[in-house]
């Protein structure tokens, strides 16, 4: 059993985020899903970027820090797209985190990584917001910092391929992702990692 904090995407706290948390709870984990916006989720990514711009990075990060303040030091930091960046930004404050789980986006600065930190990235290939070359560079930097990084690429998938309420939903890819996430959280190595950079 893990403690997990799951940060939402730029859309806000959508039903898909709550469903993901329920899936993890059903596997025996304790999961919190902070609302970093404090207002209802929006319907389009353009509205999401506009809303994030109005709220501001500092407010979002302050709310994220407040949400984890009372959680165990070894809580797994997880996030979807923008939320992956939020999860990564908290590493510097929470060096004892048991892992970094990044869905649909990269996150985490190499200088905040402790040696041996388990990191899982699940991303479309190519991804509209994290081009393959940037993902490769991010992975090299994380590995060089001592993280145990595994990257899972989903060829031809849309950016939010796990969200059944969005046009790019891929149930096959989503099932593969969740199988791998459950293995990661169970403390064992996941099958078929991307080994192109090793």
What does this structure look like?
By secondary structure, the protein is α/β, with parallel strands linked by helices. Helices cover 36% and strands 17% of the residues. It has helices at 15-26, 45-55, 57-68, 82-89, 132-144, 171-185; strands spanning 3-7, 30-32, 76-80, 100-103, 118-125, 148-155. Strand 5, helix 5 and strand 6 (148-155) form a beta-alpha-beta unit. The longest helix has 15 residues, at 171-185.
- Helical content stands at 25-40%
Share in β-strands: 15-25%
Instruction: Give the N-to-C terminal Cα separation.
Output: 30 Å
* Poorly predicted ranges: 188-193
Q: What's the short version?
A:
The chain has helices at 15-26, 45-55, 57-68, 82-89, 132-144, 171-185; strands at residues 3-7, 30-32, 76-80, 100-103, 118-125, 148-155. With 198 residues, it is α/β, with parallel strands linked by helices.
What characteristics describe this protein?
alpha/beta, 17% strand, 198 residues, single chain, six-stranded parallel sheet, 6 helices
How is the secondary structure organized here?
Elements: E1 3-7, H1 15-26, E2 30-32, H2 45-55, H3 57-68, E3 76-80, H4 82-89, E4 100-103, E5 118-125, H5 132-144, E6 148-155, H6 171-185
Parallel strand pairs: 1-2, 1-3, 3-4, 4-5, 5-6
